[in-house]
């Protein structure tokens, strides 16, 4: 009677895998959804060894019917859904004038529509469960809007905007909505970047290596946000202050972004 089921897209690696492992520690049964077949099956087997029910489902969030198919498979196997985490996503980097339309479409189909499809497929099920929640994984990029990341910034800002909208739409149904906006932490984000400058990739890797928190830390913060009914997840004091500065002193924040841009491209 106390069974809780969490569905996580992009759960075969990185933050998604950390979320699956942390959720299992809290007694959740886990639906591991990903395009990585072998890694996803391995992740599910490891979770089963921890004593929870876990199953891998192949899911490409860029495909129109993929999330509906996933929903049907999850309900058939688990019978319910309590938490949906729209985590699957890809990175991108490049000036607007250098970014191809194909890259914009990739960001749109995976990072934005992947989240939209997940919400549309699972929200009717979540409304049936008391204490249910939707978590959309955005990025601090949605708030910082740094130069040289136009398509990624716009996509993640769209996820944030969608989450704000859903928060109001689902309030009367008792479905909690959270959005995670972590800054750089060690994950495989750079591996998903196509047509990106090697120098910028190296800089991003350095920032990730210097991060004071890990994917496991972010996963814990996200699950705590679900439990505590927290909307926005900002992962450290530095990004919390940067968020406030961007809102209170936008011109100062803008000048700091220009300085950062000069350091990156010198």
TrEMBL record:
Domain called Ketoreductase: residue spans: 4-181
Domain of life: Bacteria
Keywords: NADP, Oxidoreductase
Keyword Metal-binding: no
Listed SMART domains: PKS_KR
Keyword presence, rRNA-binding: no
Family under the similarity heading: Belongs to the short-chain dehydrogenases/reductases (SDR) family.
Protein name according to UniProt: SDR family oxidoreductase
Organism from which the protein derives: Marinicella sediminis
């Amino acid at each position: 009677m106390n069974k809780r089921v969490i569905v996580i897209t992009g759960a075969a690696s990185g933050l998604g895998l950390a979320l699956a492992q942390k959720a299992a520690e809290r007694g959740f049964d886990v639906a591991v959804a990903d395009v990585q077949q072998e890694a996803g099956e391995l992740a599910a087997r490891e979770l089963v060894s921890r004593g929870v029910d876990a199953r891998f489902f192949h899911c490409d969030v860029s495909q129109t019917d993929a999330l509906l198919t996933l929903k049907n498979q999850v309900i058939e196997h688990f019978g319910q859904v309590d938490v949906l985490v729209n985590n699957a996503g890809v990175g991108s980097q490049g000036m607007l004038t250098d970014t191809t339309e194909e890259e914009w479409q990739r960001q749109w189909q995976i990072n934005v529509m992947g989240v939209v499809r997940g919400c549309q497929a699972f929200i009717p099920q979540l409304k049936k469960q008391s204490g249910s929640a939707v978590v959309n994984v955005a990025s601090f990029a949605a708030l910082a809007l740094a130069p040289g990341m136009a398509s990624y910034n716009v996509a993640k800002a769209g996820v944030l905007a969608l989450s704000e909208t859903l928060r109001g739409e689902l309030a009367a149904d008792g479905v909690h909505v959270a959005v995670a906006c972590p800054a750089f932490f060690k994950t495989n984000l750079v591996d998903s970047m196509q047509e990106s400058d090697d120098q910028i990739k190296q800089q991003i890797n350095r920032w990730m290596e210097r991060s004071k928190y890990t994917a496991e830390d972010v996963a814990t913060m996200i699950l705590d946000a679900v439990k505590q009914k927290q909307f926005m997840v900002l992962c450290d004091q530095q990004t919390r202050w940067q968020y406030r500065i961007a809102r209170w002193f936008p011109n100062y924040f803008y000048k700091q972004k220009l300085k950062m841009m000069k350091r990156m491209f010198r």
